[in-house]
Amino acid sequence: MKSKESNGKSTPLSPPAKHDQVYEALRESLVRGRIVPGRGVTLRGLAKTLDVSLMPVREAIRRISAEGGLEVRSNRRVFVPDMTTTRFEELVVARSLLEPEAAARALPLIDSARLKRIRAIDDEIDVALRTGDVEAYMTANHAFHFTIYAAAPSPVLIPMIEALWLRFGPYMRAVYGRVGTGILVDQHERAIAAIAARDDLGLREAIRADIMDGMNMIGSSLLEPD
Amino acid sequence: MKSKESNGKSTPLSPPAKHDQVYEALRESLVRGRIVPGRGVTLRGLAKTLDVSLMPVREAIRRISAEGGLEVRSNRRVFVPDMTTTRFEELVVARSLLEPEAAARALPLIDSARLKRIRAIDDEIDVALRTGDVEAYMTANHAFHFTIYAAAPSPVLIPMIEALWLRFGPYMRAVYGRVGTGILVDQHERAIAAIAARDDLGLREAIRADIMDGMNMIGSSLLEPD
DNA sequence: CCTGCGAAAATGTGATCACATTCTTTGAAC
DNA sequence: GTTCAAAGAATGTGATCACATTTTCGCAGG
User: What is the pTM of this model?
Assistant: First the structure.
């Protein structure tokens, strides 16, 4: 029995910690490609930008580094990891293994409301592709995938997949900025059809195809030697 | 051109950072099951134990938490995550997806020297199983798997798999302590045979069987409701 | 022109202090 | 004995300072 439970309002939880806000801001910057891969990240620079002291920045960077979003080199300086060929391939493989599984696990729990939302997001993607809006495309594409996966609570798989997307972020932006979004083909119709049909294998294969499609297009573009 | 490169000795790199040492110590404690799942972890407690200030502990905990080895609850207090049924299943699925892939990628690069080492480790496992030495079994089992995977440099997959093992650590210990190692069957012979035969699919299946075998045995044991 | 060296600025790390929040204990009222 | 509230201890968080290491810049020598 909790003696608390004072007011009926939402839990009066502690105000969000600053290191969490810094973490979110950093993650956002990486996903949106606002941090150039070559240039390094400095604690004091981030602290000044976000108007906090070094402390929250240190903890946020430690956390993002553990997720692979940043890399602390032996100099102890922090960089956006270089995208080498093998790293790229490994990231793609990991995505192609985990995401179909996450989708399949979510499938039985996707109700009509969520499917409707997924369809709406797919429409947004179509618009973004036609207008060439890279920012909107990336946001909507992320929402499409994770609205599917999140139908089932997956406290293990989803964070793992999020970490993979985080690692692609900076380069997706660079690639799209170079080749544009015109080449992208919308492979999501297959996924939507499979969801509507409750087709487990079909959904797995659709997600896998979507990943391979987008990644193959990138593969030919920027990649550094090992 | 680096102007450095002064002496031929190993790089005179900075002395290891304390937060890295604390991180290693923490990870070790979790894998070895020295931290009871129920009890919490306090910054000052760890700092006193390891004889450092709060700073390195804070960064180490942030890092381990990002890897899923610890959990910062909304109270901002740190615990070993509870092993629920769904969490357990997700962890097993992730292992069964990533580890066969890592093994298959390593297969072409496993030379005779490494295979010899793998065989030696398997012998250690047999001994540990016969003598019921839980500690030795866990160490050797870890070495067996990662000696295979590490044949190919996998800067993405291997850390992900390590993070999964880290999450099992505390409970493996608890389970083995309860049911003993007598039940364990050594499924590694299949893997060794597949490596010797350069049998990609055979190795994948052997690794997968090994995972399922060990995990299924655990599944019936301790697990909390969601 | 550029090569190398020394000074100066910048950076990451660790320690200590202060403070708000949370947990634990204590003690009185019923 | 049980319940509840207040006092006390413990904990996580953030800021500031100090220091060793690294990087960057300027200037001399070739």
Answer: 0.91
